[in-house]
Design a protein that fits this description.
Length: 261
């Protein structure tokens, strides 16, 4: 049995799904233009006002989790019309590069990282992913829903008297644009942020052949606030422990925006 929280999983595949938008929900017009905000979005599918990929900008986050505080910075590099990389650095740890992909459906991170921490829980050999991390800008409307699923079916196994024991890992996330509201953080008050609520689960299954002999499931719940031409400004994260003994909670807030020009 495992009592670690479900937090991160590596999976590199482009987005394949689109968000579902309620037919009765009007598309909300941007509150301002990129030029008015001094933000130059890239050309192509990576141009997303609620996740602005700006190469001359660094976003600095503070994460509070179980009595510990960490500082994480992210910068965008290698930006083109269909992909970019996030250079992520936590405290004094070496920076890591995380490649993202962009299509007309939206943008997708190949690494599921809760609260922008850089400690990866799993580095698995045969990953697969479906869905999107964030839908395209015109799908960011109240009531929109989409999903993301990270799956690894371990090819290797452990020999036992009953046969070879394999381990499967699955993270399933269902997202919804739940509200457009004011979010207050130490950096600023943002009156027109989108709150995206996410519910999901992390499942580990042990199987002999096609038969599952043991499985453990941990719930995942979090809310993320996105601000136009700023990006993610806050995330409240809860993930349960596999043994049901409790849950890990964390709060991440944007504390600084550094412009290099």
């Amino acid at each position: 049995a495992c009592n670690s929280p479900a937090s991160e999983l590596i999976v590199p595949t482009p987005p394949t799904a689109t968000a579902t938008v309620p037919s009765s929900t009007p598309t909300l017009e941007p509150t301002s233009t990129p030029e008015a905000q001094g933000v130059q979005l890239p050309n192509g599918a990576c141009a997303h006002p609620y996740f602005p990929v700006v190469e001359d900008r660094t976003l600095v986050y503070q994460n509070k989790r179980e009595g510990r505080e960490t500082i994480t910075s992210i910068a965008f590099v290698d930006v083109n019309q269909s992909a970019f990389a996030v250079e992520l650095k936590r405290d004094s740890d070496p920076a890591i590069l995380i490649p993202w992909s962009c299509t007309s459906a939206g943008i997708l991170s190949p690494v599921l990282i809760e609260d922008y921490t850089a400690s990866l829980l799993f580095e698995l050999d045969s990953p697969d992913v479906s869905g999107i991390t964030l839908p395209s800008a015109n799908q960011m409307v109240l009531g929109s829903t989409w999903s993301t699923e990270y799956v690894v079916h371990e090819m290797g196994g452990v020999e036992t008297p009953a046969g070879i024991l394999y381990t499967d890992y699955e993270v399933t996330l269902n997202h919804q644009v739940a509200e457009k509201e004011t979010v207050s953080i130490s950096l600023a008050d943002y009156p027109d942020s989108y709150r995206v609520d996410t519910e999901g689960r992390f499942r580990i299954a042990l199987r002999l052949g096609d038969e599952v002999v043991e499985e453990e499931v941990a719930p995942i719940n979090y809310s993320s606030w996105y601000v136009e031409y700023v990006g993610l400004v806050r995330q409240d994260f809860k993930v349960g422990y596999f043994d049901g003994s409790g849950e890990m909670t964390s709060i991440t807030e944007l504390i600084e925006i550094r412009e290099s020009n």
